[in-house]
């Protein structure tokens, strides 16, 4: 007889392997009980992380190996090659990194952008953090600046990274939701970890919905250390600022764009480079002398904090240009391996506990994902600097070593490769560390709300509206009431009005009074309303036409927009071409019903009675204009084209007269009542509105949701 203590069939075997965490203690894989899993073992409260912390090592190792072959996080990516060139050599006083200090040196780069939560098959436009990882192929070796489009992170200590990602990933019982954070496990983690609040403010803002990778900031997140030729250290924060400005989509757009084009951001990056509209970013640094380390009201080692630009300005260093698409997505974009510990002389680490864990974790990840220790031999990972060492064999070894000795010291290979001595070697920054071996977070990391409040105070009115709506949407998906209540309680420490507004939208009793007084400080640099608004380069403009349109007017619109760097696209009720008024044809780029307004930055309706009548009779065309208007985009029409705007419910349509041929109101540009020709300043006024990205003062309350 089979003992009931042993499973006797496959179903019972599955039951036997199920693990219910109820009424158990947290242990290691070896069954050793653990009493602390929120802080890694360090030398003192602010010292480096110790390798002997076996629980930290095991926890991160298991997390790194949980999914194969795609990345556990940042699985869905897009990349491109380019170069970086510094403006001047002023940074040589602070760092020995030649690629940052020699204005004559162009350093090749590969940049990979990505979402974080979803799998390779998820959508581009989900609400999520975006990765911004840059590999510099410098003459001194490869340097990887592995950052995000937000300057802070969810947690302070890397030992919590597996917990955070487990919480934000699709829930384990259903595998839902994919590429989204609106679910119970993520918000349960948040309501129990107040250190997440600053990052959650960023995630609920429009920063989580970038218009394109080309219009997205990047940050190194951590405080790093520059080291100059004399060995003097300086704290540094890295910033990427897009030359086109920092701009976002709106939430309704992202959901519709995901259905129309799930590769919206990836395709945008590819096509703009292919068209020669090379994306550019300026690299800037915030420098803090080591003597000022403790002058701030936050800890420089805390990755949930920023250094406000008003306190320490961002100083421009040089420009990044992406000018070449990969030849093979798998071989390059998929196989590229980044590592925060890939540094060159002149750049070093700090004791930031999140950074320390990342320095340990990335190599572990590459081993499982790329099949062995020789992933640096892959062309996309290979340095341009000479490589010579005693590392041999292993999976995918491609170097053919001819030397007899594979050890140091040796006499059989002439002692080579020899130690470099003083020839541009990397030396770790020397600092004194002392303290008890302890798993405890520094008290200087304890303020979890002040910078979340700073972010909230810095937002424009429309940004605040979007943040409230985002919290309501996300928490509206949370089934457990106590989780929603817990988040509102934390928000009440950020700002009372914010907490009340969110509570009212999710069925939670609003807090009666503020848990903390709003300190009133703000940082204007945090608001996208203060971003670059002086260019329409690469902006996609839909030009709606039908049979009978004025071909000359369409050509004039296209030419004047193209001269300003925009990308006009002619859309119509059918593909191929349409019959122009009189004679000739107008080439059509796409049928209106195969695209949507959410894929464009603005819309123009040229005049011509026959063309406008056909468009006005087509529900999809009318909806195209209505939706663009509802999403606060620039809308324009000339002559009879105004009728389509009125049919679409557009407010702000004002008729011109002899004294004013072009009128702009609430971002609606119209030219009517003239002699039939397109006024000279029509496109000029339209371009001015388009450069502002959106028209947030527009009242769209009459447009149905």
Automatic annotation (TrEMBL):
InterPro entries: Catalase, Catalase_AS, Catalase_clade2, Catalase_clade2_helical, Catalase_core, Catalase_haem_BS, Catalase_immune_responsive, Catalase_large_C. Residues 7-22 have a biased composition (Basic and acidic residues). Keywords: Heme, Hydrogen peroxide, Iron, Metal-binding, Oxidoreductase, Peroxidase. CDD domains: GATase1_catalase. Its cofactor is heme. It catalyses: 2 H2O2 = O2 + 2 H2O. Heme binds at residues 71, 112, 161, 358, 362, 369. One of its GO terms (biological process) is hydrogen peroxide catabolic process. Signal peptide: none annotated. There is a cross-link at residues 339-362 (3'-histidyl-3-tyrosine (His-Tyr)). The active site is at residues 74, 148. This is Catalase. It comes from Haloactinomyces albus.
């Amino acid at each position: 007889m089979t003992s009931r203590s042993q499973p006797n069939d496959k179903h019972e075997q599955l039951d036997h392997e199920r693990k219910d965490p109820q009424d158990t203690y947290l242990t290691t894989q070896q069954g050793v009980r653990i009493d602390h899993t929120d802080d890694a073992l360090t030398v003192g409260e602010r010292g480096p992380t110790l390798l002997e912390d076996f629980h930290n090592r095991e926890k991160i190792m298991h997390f790194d190996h949980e999914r194969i072959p795609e990345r556990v996080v940042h699985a869905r990516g897009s990349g491109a090659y380019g170069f970086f060139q510094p403006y001047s050599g002023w940074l040589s006083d602070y760092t020995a990194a030649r690629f940052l200090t020699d204005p004559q040196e162009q350093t090749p780069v590969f940049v990979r952008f990505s979402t974080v939560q979803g799998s390779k098959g998820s959508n581009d436009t989900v609400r999520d953090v975006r990765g911004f990882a840059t590999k510099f192929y410098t003459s001194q070796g490869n340097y990887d600046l592995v950052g995000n489009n937000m300057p802070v992170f969810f947690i302070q200590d890397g030992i919590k990274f597996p917990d955070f990602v487990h919480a934000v990933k699709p829930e384990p019982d259903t595998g839902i939701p994919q590429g989204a954070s609106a679910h119970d496990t993520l918000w349960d983690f948040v309501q129990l970890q107040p250190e997440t609040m600053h990052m959650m403010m960023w995630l609920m803002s429009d920063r989580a919905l970038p218009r394109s990778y080309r219009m997205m900031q990047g940050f190194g997140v951590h405080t790093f250390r520059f080291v100059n030729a004399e060995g003097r250290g300086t704290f540094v924060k890295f910033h990427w600022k897009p030359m086109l400005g920092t701009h976002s989509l709106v939430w309704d757009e992202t959901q519709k764009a995901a259905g129309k084009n799930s590769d919206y951001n990836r395709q945008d990056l590819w096509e703009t480079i292919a068209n020669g509209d090379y994306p550019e970013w300026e690299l800037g640094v915030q420098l803090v002398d080591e003597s000022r380390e403790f002058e701030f009201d936050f800890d420089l080692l805390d990755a949930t904090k920023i250094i406000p630009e008003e306190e320490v300005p961002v100083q421009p260093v040089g420009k990044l240009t992406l000018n070449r698409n990969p030849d093979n997505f798998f071989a390059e974009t998929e196989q590229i391996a980044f590592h925060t510990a890939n540094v060159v002389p002149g750049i070093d680490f700090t004791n930031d506990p999140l950074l320390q864990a990342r320095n340990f974790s990335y190599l572990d990840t590459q081993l499982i994902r790329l099949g062995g220790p020789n992933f640096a031999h892959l062309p996309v990972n290979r340095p341009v600097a000479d490589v010579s060492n005693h590392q041999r064999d292993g999976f995918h070894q491609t170097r053919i070593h001819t030397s007899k000795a594979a050890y140091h010291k040796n006499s059989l290979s002439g002692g080579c490769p020899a130690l470099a001595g003083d020839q541009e070697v990397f030396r770790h920054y020397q600092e004194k560390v002392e303290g008890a071996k302890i798993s405890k977070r520094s008290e200087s990391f304890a303020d979890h709300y002040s910078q979340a409040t700073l972010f909230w105070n810095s937002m424009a009115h429309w940004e605040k509206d979007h943040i409230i709506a985002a919290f309501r949407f996300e928490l509206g998906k949370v089934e457990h009431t106590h989780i929603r209540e817990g988040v509102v309680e934390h928000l009440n420490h950020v700002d009372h009005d914010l907490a009340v507004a969110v509570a009212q939208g999710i069925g939670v009793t609003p807090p009666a009074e503020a848990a903390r007084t709003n300190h009133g400080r703000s940082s204007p640099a945090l608001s996208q309303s203060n971003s670059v608004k002086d260019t329409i380069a690469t902006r996609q403009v839909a030009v709606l036409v039908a049979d009978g349109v004025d071909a000359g007017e369409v050509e004039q619109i296209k030419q004047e927009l193209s001269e300003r760097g925009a990308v006009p696209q002619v859309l119509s009720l059918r593909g191929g071409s349409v019959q122009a008024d009189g004679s000739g044809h107008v080439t059509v780029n796409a049928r209106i019903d195969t695209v949507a307004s959410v894929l464009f930055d603005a819309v123009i309706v040229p005049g011509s009675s026959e063309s406008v009548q056909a468009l006005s009779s087509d529900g999809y065309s009318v909806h195209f204009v209505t939706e663009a208007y509802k999403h606060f985009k620039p809308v324009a029409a000339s002559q009879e084209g105004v009728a389509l705007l009125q049919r679409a419910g557009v407010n702000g349509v004002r008729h011109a007269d002899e004294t004013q041929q072009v009128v702009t109101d609430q971002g609606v540009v119209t030219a009517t009542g003239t002699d039939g020709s397109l006024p000279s300043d029509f496109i000029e006024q339209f371009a001015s509105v388009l450069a502002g990205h959106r028209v947030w003062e527009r009242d769209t309350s009459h447009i149905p949701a």
